[in-house]
Structures
1.
Amino acid sequence: MAKKRLSISVQFLVILAIIMVLNGVVFYYMLKNVYQQELKAQAQTVVANVEAFGTWVANNGRVWVKDNPKSYLGKVSVVDPEFPSQAIHFYSKNPALAQREFSETVAASSSPAKFRMTSTNVMNPNNAPDSFERRALAAVGGNTLAEYFEVVGNDYRYAKPVYHNASCIACHGDASTAPADVIERYGRNNGFGFKEGDVAGIISVTIPQRNLFSGAVSVFGLIEVLAIGASVLLILWFVRQRIIVPVRTITSMAEKISKGESADVASIGIDSNSKNEIDQLTLATNRMATSFGLAMKKMNESRKAAQQAIRVAKTLKAQQGKE
Ligand code: HEC
């Protein structure tokens, strides 16, 4: 059965399409990796800020606020002797409480990245872990993992463990030695029993992931699209100008030669040592045309000679007949 194949241009377009699709897939995954790393860096920044804020509170022991009885640990009232009837009340917030209020303030803000602190053994039931946080706590529980992250639905979720040091154990160690104001507010059942060096819990960060394609405009600007279009056109132009068009020309030459017609093979100006394959094909076709022409010339000459001989023979025969 004779092989019927598609034209080079069609084959080339098919291959080009496959290459573009493969490149597109690779590009998508590269973009996704970069984006994931970027989200991780964002989450790490959030954690660093939360830790820094906690450290700031811890370095001050507690922070004291005036006239904010919504949530606090301790309370002192100061009376100015000059105005004994007007006591001023100060309320204290420890690092975890201040961090939780920070977290609630961020949650209510326009910041896309949210965070909270949680633990396997929470002092405040409102800090109880969700299912991702339970997985993260289980993963970092062995004291070996420095961070844990997952993509949950549309969110990038990140967790970093926090460890108890001696100062933490004052409140999170034995409930019987914990400060009275902590016991008063949180009871003696939850959030205690930790030792120095234990995983206290995690700082859990949630960042909504943007769809890479809905944000395609920011990835592909006009210049990028034009550059891709231009490179495709460049490849198409090259294949057409340098392969398809010369092959067509040579084919029509060869066809003419095969019919014995005179063919003008444009080989003038081609260096016989040219490294270009099409040039070599043109030169070879030219040589073929020359040899073919010579052969035809010789054939015509022999034919003429033969006809001459026949004529001579006929004349001789006729003369013999007369004699
Ligand atoms: C002054 C007492 C005190 C000290 C010291 C203290 N915490 Fe807490 N911690 C608390 C209280 C009270 C809460 C609950 C705050 C709230 O209502 O969210 C808490 C909450 C937490 C939570 C959130 C989960 C939960 O139990 O509700 C983590 C994690 C935590 N603390 C870790 C630490 C670490 C680590 C240190 C030391 C760097 C530390 N804490 C020092 C009192 C303390």
2.
Amino acid sequence: MKTWLLALQQQLSRQIRENKLPHALLFSGVDGAGQEEIAHWLINVLLCQNLKEDASQDLTQGITQGITQEKDESLSQVSQEAASDKPFTFQPCGDCKTCKLFANNSYPDHLTIVNDKNTIGVDAIRKLSQFFEKTAHIGIAKTALVNHADTMTVSAANALLKTLEEPTSQSFIMLTTHSSDVLLATIISRCQKFEIRPPVGKKLLAEYKKQGDDAFVNLSHLSELTDEATAVAFTAFRDKVKGYLCAHQHRAELLAILVEHRDGFRWLEKIVVNLMRNHWGWPTAGHQNEQESVINKQQLWQVYNLVQAANIKLKTLVQINRQFLSEKLLADISVVVKQKN
Ligand SMILES: [Zn+2]
């Protein structure tokens, strides 16, 4: 578990003990912040038949770091109480029947909704509502997890609202997202919202025991830092983007990544920003120090605007044709870079 999630685990453990865990919770944060991890832990804690209690380190200082919380009155209370009451976290035993079934993805009183391709449709949410209407098989709690809740279609979100408004007892719905700004306000208002904010810069590098002194490492690098395969994929993608900008190479590979890889558009924006940093002599977040002199500042700025506009479309329009958007973006970029200097 990521160290910055500990404060949140402590707070949620306390809420469970005091019977103050709400029926709907929303965990948001940048990709890799740990929202799915914390939701998974919490569900397992709610289902486990033989919970353990870990006395954890005192985070009185850090309890407000790492998480900020909206629509909550208990956080300041928690920090005050933490001084007198020892912080602890619940941990699932991992050994009981429900833990084993849950680990196997076969626990009957839990449902995870996954987005097939790019969206969560109304059928998936109806399945969730029906799931909650039935009585529990094992009879402890019923839980559901909706990952990437921002990808719900409007009708799916409206269907979910009904379920959120009429909670059945001992039922818990967790939503995770990396862009809560896209979620309907009516959904957000029915959830207790936890915004996970991991540390940045050197602290972030230290968390992953990475060498370096780069103060510009930020949260958008999380998935690259936490996952070696992603780091490799990112570097390969970056080289191809440079090849495309400078020599119009690798169009097909870039297109495939933009269409199929969920990080493609975000990576592209990051790469272009880093190229601009180089051009303007700003410090760079990566280690690209070679001069990129093939396209000029003005072209780079135009490319940046195109990429940013595409990213906004991707974020705000739920049912967008990603293939078309990617093809158009590459075509528009190619028009810009082919202009004579
Ligand atoms: Zn257990």
3.
Amino acid sequence: MNLKTDLKALSKKELESFIKEQGLPAFRARQLRHWIYERRAESIDEITEFSKDLREGLSKKAYISTLKLLSRQISADGTEKFLFGLEDGESIESVLIPDKDRLTLCISSQVGCAMKCRFCLTAQLRLRRNLRAHEIVDQVICGGRLIHPRSITNIVFMGMGEPLANFYEAVEALWRMTELMKISKRRITLSTAGIAPKILELAEKAPRVNLAISLNATTDEVRSRLMPINKKYPLRSLLDACRRFPLEPRRRITFEYVMLQGLNDTQDDARRLIRILKGIPSKVNLIPFNPYPGSEYRRPSDEEIERFQKIVLGGNVTALIRKSKGQDILAACGQLKAGYG
Ligand code: SF4
């Protein structure tokens, strides 16, 4: 067990107290934040702004943690999946998705997930533990280092876990990304399975990043079957929270809709979708299901998906078909299992 203090794990206040306890001036905390989050230093020794004595003295008491890259897989379509090891031996996955001029990093917020969505492989792990804020942020730092000289342009909280079920750490991670790493709020999207009260709390407590809702059904009956969280927060309360979510001008909420043959892909569903999204500035991403070994659902045909899209577009709702990437390396939406079981 490492008895030294992990500087990356400390909040702004905790870092300031730590520096004070060491008898160092307050500006050292600012310098440390700069080196950890902007210069992305992996060790105290890399902080050349500090004298050798200061680096050595500090290294006796503290260190800077980093995720350990356990494996890196590259899909035929260019998607990359990183398996990262955490200090306690757990592991998580992050996925880098190239799309035209974008390089989006999909990050995890928990080890496993407790939400039990029926179409998701991560759900089979159950929740092993919440990630700490620095472990969430470190996926961006390490991912950025691994793909250098390319840079990550967008970040989505759509990997393993439900970020709003790990609310405090997810919000703290968002603050570190926007304030300390200077990543634009417009380039970050948090996706939730629908913990309705936390959506409004997010608007109050976190920087105004983009919001995505994993919707996947247009009736409570089907949604509760697919996503048990719907029994607690049915569509009415979820969509009500979305209606009340304060959006900045010209921003929209993204609704993710994984298309499952014979379950949520009918023409009635398409028409209901238009109806239930009324009054919400929205954009729908239609995601054809990615079957995995043993999955109980099927992907609708291209014609069925296009017919669904046409009806939704006819209702003046933006609807895009998002072909999932990285299927050959199980990196696509709902396929992350971090090598467990
Ligand atoms: S889809 Fe997301 S929220 Fe649902 S079980 Fe999978 S990781 Fe959790």
4.
Amino acid sequence: MRLDYHMHTRLTDGTGEPRDYARVALERGLDEIGCSDHAPLANRETDWTMKKADLATYVGWVREAQREFPQLPIKLGLEVDYLPGCEVWVRELAAMHSWDYFLGSVHYLGDFPVDRSAEDWKGQDVDARWHEYFALWTKAAGSCLFDSLAHPDLPKKFDIHPQFDFTPVYHEALRVVSEAGVAIEISSAGLRKPCREIYPSESFLRLAREFKVPITFGSDAHIPQDVGIDFDKAVVLARQCGYDKLCRFTQRRRELVRL
Ligand SMILES: [Zn+2]
Ligand SMILES: [Zn+2]
């Protein structure tokens, strides 16, 4: 099965509406998609997240697309930022609609934006930022607030890497992921970024497989034309690392299906 569980709409930093993504997904032969626009943050409005008042519009758009394309399962998801102290808000969000899944993401370390621009990384202690990122990502995994964790090694986006072997950090992070029973996303978005590499790296994904961590797939499309893009490469990577199944979600219940 080919499932793309990560895409954004014009309510946030994407373009188009769920129906536009569905149309392209059908053309590309995908079996299922999931919309995962950026959830509002607890107490701050941004130009890249939905406003709380947008949630009803977003859910309405997904429901309309479901009616318009009955031949394509379209899941109702959200990409939700994990920020310290966000737990109460994320649980509140979870109770608002019958979501199919939550993708957990770390985009911010305090005020530091991980993936906004290479400029932001100038003068940073790269090793420390990577450590900080994975500490928060591991907490997100252990929070049990999410069904899958998006773009796991996001700090590599600008091809800026730590100076030492990160394997022990990955090991600890994936141990927590595995115990929490959460999935991780294989994201083709990295191929369109300066790092030119799928998130996560092959070494990370091999370790994830050893820990029996299940996977989802995402393009992180911000334009409809990117739905399912480079999934051939993402599937090859998953198979190389030993995966033959992926997960789909329905009302936050997980089901494993053949890759
Ligand atoms: Zn993201
Ligand atoms: Zn995204």
